[in-house]
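Internal tracking record. Fields below are filled automatically when a chain is submitted to the structure queue. Please do not edit lines marked as system-generated. If the sequence contains nonstandard residues, flag them in the REMARKS field before resubmitting.
Queue: standard
Priority: normal
Entity type: single polypeptide chain
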Amino acid sequence: MADKPTSVYVLYVRGTPEQVWDALTDAGLTAAYWGHSNVSDWRPGSRWEHVRTDGSGVADVVGTVVESGRPTRLVTTWADPADEAAADRHSRVTFDITPHADIVRLTVTHEDLADEAEREQAAAGWAAVLSNLKTLLETGAPLPQDPWNVPAGQ
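SYSTEM-GENERATED OUTPUT FOLLOWS
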């Protein structure tokens, strides 16, 4: 199989690995900065869902927890619910959480993307979501507007 595109995003957050882990896995916290609740028991082999916060119960992304090492590493598969049965259409997201004194380096690697267009979309999405995560953890509130709604080129 040919190499598939990968997006890597690195940011530094004032906080602890446990705070960053919780921001990625706690349904209430993800709802606050992502517009979706990440729902799972976070055990390897378990299903996870990225559920809209509008009360519809619709999951826009689903997957499986591949690795779960609180508070330093989380690996999941990532798929459109319509593609859930087609393993070759799943991508993989790895969250590596590395502490250093009073800060944390969070590296998000989204690999096995379908093509360059999907890689660009993932890169833009992760930049917006992780900016909001960082702001929430460092200030106690997410950004005042959803960053993924900022039009491209502005």
